[in-house]
Design goal:
mainly alpha; Peroxidase, domain 2; two-stranded antiparallel sheet; 47% helix; binds protoporphyrin IX containing FE; Peroxidase; heme binding; peroxidase
């Protein structure tokens, strides 16, 4: 994604990936014969959406994360309610929070016009989140898994131990987790996700000036309008993909409780310090961890289906 996010991170991503052997049966050339124009077509839609609204780059990365953590990267998150299952869109971590579904639907519609029934929604999600033509061949689920979305996606309130174990269950190490959390160097969060943190400093784990700044736009009183007021997840350079997220954590300026917990005297402190000092290490670890995350439990070969419309079977 060149777009609003600094192009550098994506360039590094692509370079790294080209030098990486694809695991399992996902492959970078998966659509070369069946739909050679798939990737440029998807990218064009994504770029247009991001140039219209910068934040969409962040929203699409998160959409891919919330897909992969629930029954693998199978686009189950895109399905609407049906008589057979409840949509994941209304699971607690997703409802009124995850966005970008329409951009994926638009990309899918364009791709269906040129190659009907070939390119899976799960691959479109992966390409949208990573903007690189590698590791494709995921197929789409035939169901949605609302219960798993509620149980497996980590809440912003949980302890470091719980975060580590949620990622571990998906085959991701604490180091992967810290690197991936570095996604919070872009994008935004709603007031209800950080209100407790900025108004309650009993254990001194938030910078006082930072808390005061955030309080100005996130009122203490909860109401539908107040709850959804936005703040950038990273305050210094919210639109560029850099390591300021980690520098902020060391200054006790993490926005979400789940951000600050990564640097709170626990086992991940050292990784945060390392990434805060070595931007290149962060970027290359981030690229590897994104690939690992995109490879969670893919449906390949004849498993699953290729949906014609991403929101329905
Ligand atoms: C470690 C556990 C994590 C927790 C508890 C967490 C939680 C959250 C929360 C609460 C928000 C704000 C949502 C809202 O206010 O509506 C958010 C935003 C975001 N998250 Fe995470 N997250 C985690 C890890 C990740 C990972 C692994 C990624 C990607 C690889 C990611 C990418 C993002 C992005 C890009 C945004 C901004 C989205 C936007 O602006 O639309 N997060 N996250």
């Amino acid at each position: 994604m060149s777009m609003g996010v600094s192009g550098q991170a994506w360039l590094i991503l692509v370079v790294l990936v080209l030098g990486t052997t694809c695991e399992a049966q996902l492959s970078s050339t998966f659509y070369d014969n069946t739909c050679p124009k798939a990737l440029p077509t998807i990218r064009k839609v994504i770029r247009k959406a991001v140039s219209k609204e910068r934040r969409m780059a962040a929203s699409l990365i998160r959409l891919h994360f919330h897909d992969c953590f629930v029954h693998g990267c199978d686009a189950s998150i895109l399905l609407d309610d049906s008589s057979a299952f409840q949509s994941e869109k209304t699971a607690r971590p997703n409802e009124n929070s995850v966005r970008g579904y329409n951009v994926i639907d638009q990309a899918k519609a364009k791709v269906e016009k040129i190659c009907p029934g070939v390119v899976s929604c799960a691959d479109i999600l992966a390409v949208a989140a990573r903007d690189a033509s590698f590791s494709l061949g995921r197929r789409d689920s035939t169901a949605a898994y609302k219960d798993i979305a509620n149980s497996d996606l980590p809440s912003f309130r949980v302890s470091l131990q719980v975060l580590i174990s949620r990622f571990n269950t998906k085959g991701l190490s604490p180091r992967d987790m810290v690197a991936l959390s570095g996604s919070h160097t872009i994008g935004q969060a709603q007031c209800f996700t950080f209100r407790d943190r900025i108004y309650n400093n009993s254990n001194g784990d938030i910078d006082v000036g930072f808390a005061a700044t955030r309080q100005r736009t996130c009122p203490l009183a909860s109401s539908p309008t107040n709850d959804e007021k936005l703040a950038p997840l990273e305050l210094v350079t919210p639109n560029s993909f850099d390591n300021n997220y980690f520098k902020n954590l060391i200054r006790k300026k993490g926005l979400l409780p789940s951000d600050q917990v990564l640097y709170s005297g626990g086992s991940t402190d050292d990784i945060v310090v390392e990434y805060s000092k070595h931007s290149a290490t962060f970027k290359s670890d981030f690229a590897s961890a994104m690939i690992k995350m995109g490879d969670i439990q893919p449906l390949i070969g004849s498993a699953g289906i290729v949906r014609r419309i991403c929101s329905a079977i």
